[in-house]
Design goal:
Layout lengths: L20 H4 L41 E6 L8 H10 L9 E7 L6 E7 L8 H5 L5 E3 L6 E3 L9 H5 L6 E3 L4 E3 L5 H4 L6 H5 L5 E5 L27 E4 L7 E4 L5 E5 L12 E5 L11 H5 L4 H24 L17 H21 L18 H22 L5 H27 L13 H24 L5 H30 L5 H9 L3 H24 L4 H24 L15 H10 L19 H10 L2 H13 L1
Helix pairs in contact: 8-9, 8-11, 8-12, 8-16, 9-10, 10-11, 12-13, 12-16, 13-15, 15-16
Length: about 650
């Protein structure tokens, strides 16, 4: 257990719940029971086994949800909480479980600054836990703490995408995520978390949620700069009596300010501060193609485009293999000289995509852990679906080399397996981006874009491959061009709806759209222009019944360029619902500057370079050898049982 000193000061000691009215009601403001074992009494009197110590704390509030209490009026931004947290957890300079940012408003002499200290909020509905494919997260009955095991984590970073408060920290150096652990070792011996004990201004407190600390009167859930609470129901309460300006701005580079609304909405309470656009960088359009196409997310770009292309092309090949009508344009696909080579190339393309995605992980040799959370995680479900599609495609391709009724039946079964994986994996490939904490992605445009990419590139692949190896029938040509044209229309409609929704949005999505039309303005215009030209060109080919390898090549170059730029914009301009930073700390603009100028070489800057990690085959083999068959079977069962 944590070694508690004999002379611990009173401010460092946990205060026993006074069982006030809010706590006596048993539920917090979101309707969640404060007593964490109300529905799971079997979890009581279990040891947390901290440092292999089996002792069980006698804290009377051990099984009540705890949370932080922040008095915004008292915070002086001394950063003592940050320092205490990092010292306690032995964090490197570029990792901070707790950070202090601020917003400001007004002008001299009525200038105001509001500081915000934030760590993990140990939410009632932790989206990090549900999103993590490796099941590295657990919400414990003890104190309601949401804890994460970095040894289980394989560094995909999805929890950092879904968390609205930027609590999980992905360490590029170690290739794993870590986060605030509520200092449960201190709680077990009756001490408050290190950050709370270190607070100089009496701004940060801790205790049973809804149990308002002494000399405090408020328990608000919103202050300027704090994201909406309906996503996860965070266990943090605020006091802020000092009246602020109607508009409070961030000092970091994020193009967001916060505007106080007087009327409640479905998302925000009365007098909440909602995000609005703050065009602090002006409206000058730029290309920034090198920055756009050289991002750390290129692995996701390659995987999603290649997987969607292969899925779209496979739809044609599967239909063409089992369509018997002689007058159908599809009938000749399976007898074409391009049939077998096209299947082999498709297999190679998706293999490259899967390889790039796996090597994007912080621990690529732990890839198998991606299946561990099928019960909750859309990432696990996408991995399972795409893996099923890949397996079906491999069998389908191998069986295509044999021509007999028996092998044809087996090939049909393999095709059904691949189609099942296509539908399941394709749906969750879209679903994993419907993230409330990333408003730019959380739109139907994500679906229309992914579907259109598959149909357009898949159809062009079939057309170009067959044209290069002998040609296609006029009926198939018309069918392919019709599908391409319809898919391009779907893409354009999705983009228009996305644009209209973002222009009127009260979310970080409006800042993403601003970045898209300014920082990458000319690249954005090029993508849109190529998209419209591709539609016009495909319709012209359809209406004139024109067939040419060069025509299809030109159409392929235009659409593929449009798709690559569009997908790069999708990943690069997204802005999450993070907490405000400062001029340097937690400022994405400074992070980019430090990496470009070499300041990131200095550890004290708190910035490191993004990197990819090697596939450690030695560690993988050691794990295989040291894990018993019984444990392997148990792990396999847990994939399905949760």
């Amino acid at each position: 257990m944590f070694a508690r000193r004999d002379n611990e000061p009173a401010y460092a000691l946990l205060v026993k719940s006074d069982n006030n009215e809010a706590v006596a009601n048993d539920n917090n403001r979101y309707g969640t029971p404060i007593e964490t074992i109300q529905n799971h009494p079997d979890l009581k009197n279990k040891s947390l086994n901290i440092n292999e110590d089996s002792e069980i704390s006698e804290n009377p509030d051990r099984y009540k949800q705890h949370g932080f209490y922040f008095n915004a009026d008292n915070c002086i931004a001394c950063h003592a909480c940050e320092a205490a947290c990092s010292e306690k957890n032995d964090n490197p300079a570029h990792i901070a479980f707790r950070s202090v940012g601020f917003v400001e408003g007004g002008t001299y002499p009525a200038y105001q600054r509001l500081n915000i200290s934030m760590a993990c909020n140990h939410c009632d509905d932790p989206v990090c836990l549900k999103g993590c494919p490796t099941r590295a997260y657990t919400k414990f009955a003890e104190y309601g703490a949401v804890l994460q095991d970095p040894d289980i984590c394989f560094g995909c970073g999805y929890c950092t995408w879904v968390c609205p408060y930027n609590a999980p920290q992905l360490d590029p150096e170690k290739g794993q995520v870590t986060k605030c652990n509520m200092c449960v070792d201190r709680l077990e011996v009756g001490l408050k978390p290190a950050c709370t004990s270190a607070c100089l201004g009496n701004a940060l407190d801790f205790g049973v949620i809804e149990d308002i600390p002494e000399n405090r009167t408020q328990a608000k859930v919103n202050i300027p700069g704090f994201p909406r609470t309906d996503i996860t129901h965070p266990n943090i309460r605020f006091e802020q009596k000092r009246t602020t300006q109607r508009e409070m701005t961030r000092v970091d580079q994020t193009a967001i300010k916060y505007h106080r609304i007087d009327e409640p909405s479905t998302t925000y309470e009365e007098s909440s501060f909602v995000p609005e656009l703050d065009p602090k960088q002006g409206f000058l359009r730029q290309w920034n193609l090198k920055k756009l196409l050289g991002s750390h997310e290129n692995a996701h770009i390659i995987f999603t485009i290649s997987a969607q292309l292969v899925m779209g092309a496979f739809l044609w090949l599967f239909a063409g293999t089992f369509v018997s009508e002689a007058n159908s344009g599809l009938a000749g696909l399976s007898t074409s000289v391009a049939y077998l080579p096209s299947l082999v190339v498709l297999l190679a393309l998706i293999t490259i995509g899967l390889y790039k995605l796996n090597m994007h992980l912080g621990k690529p040799h732990r890839f198998y852990r991606g299946f561990y959370n099928l019960r909750h995680s859309p990432v696990s479900r996408e991995i399972a679906g795409v893996s099923l599609f890949f397996a079906g495609l491999v069998l389908f391709t191998l069986l295509a080399f044999f021509d007999s009724p028996f092998f044809n039946t087996l090939q049909f079964i393999a095709g059904i397996i691949a189609m099942t994986g296509l539908v399941f994996g394709g749906y969750f490939m879209y679903k994993l981006y419907r993230i409330e904490a990333r408003p730019f992605w959380n739109h139907i445009n994500t679906a229309t874009s992914f579907i259109a990419t598959g149909l357009v590139l898949g159809s062009l692949y079939i057309a170009l491959f067959n044209m290069l190896m002998g040609g296609i029938s006029q009926s198939l040509n018309s069918l392919l061009l019709a599908v391409i044209s319809i898919a391009l229309v779907i893409e354009i409609i999705g983009l228009w709806l996305h644009r209209q929704s973002l222009k009127a949005a009260h979310s970080e999505g409006v800042a993403s759209f601003y970045e898209q039309t300014t920082t990458y303005g000319y690249s954005y215009m090029l993508r849109n222009t190529l998209l419209v030209l591709s539609l016009i060109f495909s319709l012209a080919l359809l209406l004139t019944a024109y067939q040419s390898v060069w025509a299809y090549a030109i159409l392929t170059v235009m659409t593929l360029t449009s798709v690559i730029i569009g997908r790069a914009l999708f990943y690069v301009v997204v802005i999450p619902t993070t907490m405000p930073g400062g001029f340097f700390w937690r400022n994405q603009g400074f992070v980019e500057h430090a990496r470009e100028t070499g300041l990131a070489d200095m550890p004290q800057m708190g910035v490191v370079y993004e990197k990819h990690h090697a596939f450690n085959i030695k560690e993988l083999l050691e794990t295989i050898q040291s894990t018993s068959m019984k444990e392997k079977i148990a792990q396999l069962k847990r994939i399905f049982t949760g």
